[in-house]
Amino acid sequence: RGSRVHPDSGEHAGHLIAMDIDSGEILWRHSTATRPGGAALTTAGGLVVSADTDRNLFVHDVETGEVLFRTRLPGSVQGFPITYAVDGRQYLAAPVGGGRANAVYVFALPERAVSAR
After folding, report:
1. Where do the domains of the chain lie, and which CATH numbers do they carry?
2. Alpha-carbon distance values, 94 to 32, 63, 70, 85, 99 (Å)
3. Is the pTM of this model over 0.70?
4. How large is the average pLDDT for residues 4-32?
5. What tens digit of pLDDT does each residue of 69-82 get?
6. Residue 107 confidence class, pLDDT cut points 50, 70, 90
7. What is the residue-wise DSSP string for the chain?
8. Contact, 51 vs 57, CB < 8 A?
9. CA angle 52–35–48, rounded 5-degree value
10. Mean pLDDT in residue range 21-27
11. Which of 117, 105, 62, 111 has its CA nearest to residue 90?
12. Torsions phi, psi of 46, nearest 5?
């Protein structure tokens, strides 16, 4: 059947959208050239984690959508990233694979990510 792209999406095939649930107002949007990969995740420290099928992992500011961190992994994120804390330090773990480079990548989050806003 081929790919289907929404006519308003231009060059972008994927969008992460933050929306005010009461008003329906779009607060911010992060667009990517490829489809989303895995599931989005929010943290109590004000971060949003997303991925695309071009093997990129993004960490956004929850208020503005600004990309605070981006890395390209050996494979695309599959499934659900998680966060957890050990001895007061918060970590992000993302399962990567889909047939190649199967692994779980773990990143230590910056100190500001641990304290809730």
Report:
1. 7-113 (2.40.128.630)
2. 19, 22, 13, 15, 15
3. yes
4. 79
5. 999 999 899 889 99
6. very high
7. ------GGGTT-SEEEEEE-TTT--EEEEEEESS-B-S--EE-TTSEEEEEBTTSEEEEEETTT--EEEEEE-SSEE-S--EEEEETTEEEEEEEEESSSS-EEEEEEPPGGGTS--
8. yes
9. 45
10. 93
11. 111
12. 90, 30
* Structure-token pair, residue 49: 């984690």
The one-letter amino acid at 28: W
Max Cα distance, the chain (Å): 50
Query: Environment class of residue 36 by beta-carbon count within 10 Å: exposed (0-12), middle (13-18) or buried (19+)?
Result: middle
Q: Token digits for 109?
A: 């989050």
The amino acid at 61: D
